[in-house]
Amino acid sequence: MKHYNISEYIDPTENINIYSYEVEEPEPPHTHEFIEIVYILAGQGKHSVNGIWYPVTRGDLLFLTPGQIHSFVNQQGMELVNCLVSPDFFNQIIHESNAVQVLSLSSMEETGTYTEKLIPVVRFSGHEILAVEALIKDMIAEFSEKRIYYKSTLQGYLLVLISRIFRALEENSTVTLDQMGKLTPELLVYIEENLNRPLSLQELARKCFYSPAYFSKIFKEYCGMSLTEYLAEKRMQLAESYLLSENWSVEEVCRAVGYNDRSQFYKLFRSHTGMSPGEYRTKMRKK
Q: Which residues pair with 54 in a beta bridge?
């Protein structure tokens, strides 16, 4: 069995490494000296932790401590984010001699309960998926760009991520959220793959076999915003990406994210960023 050393994967001057990739080959059982946080960005697969297999899909996160035996296989286009962290990095932000033990127990201190072992798989749901993915995206950007104070910023982001992990463990116990969690990642993928065209409440409700009124209700409960607000948010994020990565005109970007009404697009983009599309492109490309 392979054992991954900290020195192979983590720069000792940083004590953290974070990156995303698409899984192509199965990963055989292995252990490592570092803490590994794995988030499923897309697709489906199976992860084994200490001999127990867990089916995973978008929104699922695994918290793996040093010495645990871990392996995984891709079943359907699985894309991961790996956050590899030296225990020293946790020590710096938690100020304890045994950071892993503190992490294992700190979620129980506020509730007055106790477990012997941290649950290895956390299933985020609804708007928490969006919040966690935005947080992870920021972490990857900080690590790759290495701007001034990036280490301190990563420490702060990591504390927020840990808090969300523990919150999800406490809150994701209701039947309603558990049932919806099996559906929503697939629905969110469908929405993101079709942002370039109109998406109606009726179409999405039919895909879930719900009435439009009921679908609207549970979507807002699950995602923390209405379908209209969610579509606008995702389209503005996609527009930001196109403005920076493509040499398209603003009108072409507008159409590429599903808007035929230019004035509506401009209004939503300014509300989202505080700038017009042209101002955003100019300012961000100067950085």
A: 47
Question: If pLDDT is split at 50, 70 and 90, which confidence band does 91 have?
Answer: low
Q: What is the structure's pLDDT at 94?
A: 55
C-beta of residue 1 within 8 angstroms of C-beta of residue 30:
yes
Side-chain-side CA neighbours of residue 12 (13 Å): 4
**Domains observed in the chain:** 2-172 (2.60.120.280), 194-285 (1.10.10.60)
pLDDT of residue 185: 63
Q: Are residues 268 and 276 in contact, defined by beta-carbon separation less than 8 angstroms?
A: no
Given this model, what pLDDT does residue 171 score? 66
Tens digit of each residue's pLDDT (9 = 90 or more) over 263-276 = 999 999 999 999 99
**Alpha carbon distance 112, 171 (integer Å):** 15
Asked if pLDDT for residue 79 goes beyond 50, the answer is yes
